[in-house]
Write a structure and sequence with these properties.
Blueprint (H helix, E strand, L loop, with lengths): L2 H7 L3 H12 L3 H10 L7 E6 L6 H14 L4 E7 L12 H4 L9 E7 L11 H10 L4 E5 L16 E6 L6 H4 L10 E4 L7 H10 L6 E3 L8 H13 L10 E8 L3 H9 L7 E5 L4 E8 L2 E8 L5 H9 L2 E9 L2 H10 L9 E2 L5 E5 L1 H4 L4 E5 L4
Parallel strand pairs: 1-4, 1-5, 2-3, 2-4, 5-6, 6-7, 8-11, 12-15
Antiparallel strand pairs: 8-12, 9-10, 10-11, 13-14, 14-15
Helix pairs in contact: 1-2, 2-3, 2-6, 4-9
Length: 376
Amino acid sequence: MNEQARKIREGDARALARVATGIENRDARALDALRELEPFAGHARIVGITGPPGAGKSTLVDALAVELRKRGKTLAILAVDPSSRHTGGAILGDRIRMQQHHADPGIFIRSMATRGTLGGMARATADLARLMDTAGKDYVIIETVGVGQDEIEITSVAQVTVVVLVPGMGDDVQAIKAGIMEIADIFVINKSDHPGSERVEMELHAEGFTCPVIRTVASEGKGIADLADAVADASARPKSAAPKGASIDHLGIAVQSLEDSIGFYESLGLAVARRESVAAEKVEVAMLPVGESRIELLQASSPDSPVAKFLEKRGPGLHHVALRVPDLNAAVARLQARGARLLNEPRAGAGGHIYVFVHPTSTGGVLLELIQESTN
């Protein structure tokens, strides 16, 4: 084992910092040290903290670090910041924002510049995470730069991904659902003392997310112990493979009046998470989460809507069954090859989902809605 690698295993913070810099600069000697240290990898829990700009990720990481140290854990924080156009270095300086940890030998903090790399991470992030792991850290926390909806590179490194949201997002939950929302092992609603935190949580449940949802006020340390518990639990839990087949998204029930019908379901302990008008179908919708699926109550908004015609012919009752499929276009092609009768071309419906209806004559008697499964 070369000298730098040996010093790192002995706990030399300066050697760790030097090798980290070398890895960022793709220095051959530093990369050799990392290779020599590889047999010691596998101890650390690697946690990704990601989410949109302004969600308070740095404050959350700072508070989580305090909680983990209270529990006797050592950790490294890799904070990925935007690059300076002049120097290429990190311009926000999380090490400055986390000065309270400067004298704590149990915390190693490194700001990394993206250097033009997309996806919310720096090019050397994965290598630095492995380095911190081999150095014996219990946790490696990677804070991404504020990301957009399709910047999900953190999943290639982190064992546990925490997506941080804030109140006031409203329909933005729908807007980013197909991106970073889908990679979460844990959701954190930070700044939860602000109005709207309950709505964000209800939106998450309404969309079928079943992972833990933790409310925090990171600036005051509230909810951070619960987050640390959730991270530890998620670390111990193997990730399940994404479903490859169809799954039930919701049951659509035609009703004469939403207001009259909602009370019945509320008496069963269900709650309306979202109400929406769907112009294309001329219908008003109330969504009530039920486990990983939901019930959608449908009220006609026009006498010539399909739901109005259904009610006139059959009365209130089950209108359709909706299935999520991993590839809607492929499913449509297979159905067309079998001669199935489709009622529309794939288009956006409630919640922005892309869907198509299949006529009851092709399905055994029930109107079937196929919805495109959100993808990472």
